[in-house]
Write a structure and sequence with these properties.
Layout lengths: L10 E4 L9 H13 L18 H12 L5 H18 L7 H10 L4 E5 L3 H11 L7 E4 H4 L7 H14 L9 E5 L2 H9 L3 E5 L8 H6 L3 E3 L7 H5 L6
């Protein structure tokens, strides 16, 4: 192995929405759909103000800003009913995900999810799509106490994954984070994690900007053989 080559990955940490599952198009339309019930027009671009927040914080923002719903709690319940249906029944898996996860498991790489979405919603989609068994650990930003503008959720996911597998917490440089969101790529990179940037055509990030913020860039998992990560060297 050359001096510049990285050691084999010790863990993979995946974002879910827009990375593993094709849900960002839904997220960009569900808020306008929700507020339209109250006679308010809202564009998908308005979503950008709260995109990095956990769901309760997002809804509190819209309740206070727009004055809709009897309370933030009532508005959350209304939105959750809409989300529960879509995560449980309609959101598809992104191309090549199942095959890549199978390769990683065969190679003995432990995997976790770090997400801003509520765990029950994510789990319902993962179970329906047949990939729940790949992830013994799922951590939310609500549990971590910070949005993905900070690396806390990735750190917590790694700690719990190591506890679950009985291994020591490795250096961040030996762990890969898979993300589509710019704030997640930025914060995980600042903490020293290696990053696979997954472009989501339904998301907000510019494709070339995503490419510039990661060690490996892909449009779909179908173009990412595990060997590309296993043999990663600086400057590739």
């Amino acid at each position: 192995m050359s001096d510049t080559q990285r050691t084999a990955p010790r863990a993979f940490i995946f974002d879910c929405d827009g990375t593993l599952i094709d849900s960002m198009g839904m997220w960009l339309t569900i808020y306008p759909e929700l507020v339209a019930r109250y006679g308010i027009s809202m564009t998908p671009e308005d979503f950008a103000a709260t995109e990095s927040l956990a769901l309760p914080d997002e809804i509190a923002y819209y309740h206070e800003k727009l004055g809709i719903g009897e309370s933030a709690e009532a508005l959350i319940a209304e939105l959750r009913g809409m989300l529960t249906d879509r995560y449980a029944h309609t959101i598809p898996l992104r191309e090549g995900v199942a095959g890549f996860l199978g390769q990683a498991r065969a190679a003995g790489i432990p995997m976790a999810i770090a997400t801003s979405t509520d765990e029950d919603l994510v789990r319902s989609a993962l179970v329906r799509l047949g990939i729940d068994g790949f992830f013994p650990v799922l951590v939310t930003t609500a549990e971590a106490g910070a949005s993905k503008e900070h690396p806390d959720v990735y750190d917590l996911a790694l700690e719990r994954l190591c506890a679950a597998t009985g291994s020591e917490v490795p250096a961040h440089r030996d762990v890969w984070v898979f993300e589509d969101a710019m704030f997640g790529l930025a914060s995980s990179g600042s903490a020293g994690y290696r990053r696979v940037g997954v472009y989501d055509p339904h998301g907000r990030a510019d494709r070339e900007v995503v490419r510039s913020r990661c060690e490996i860039f892909v449009d779909e998992f179908s173009e990412l053989p595990l060997e590309r990560i296993l043999s990663f060297t600086e400057g590739e």
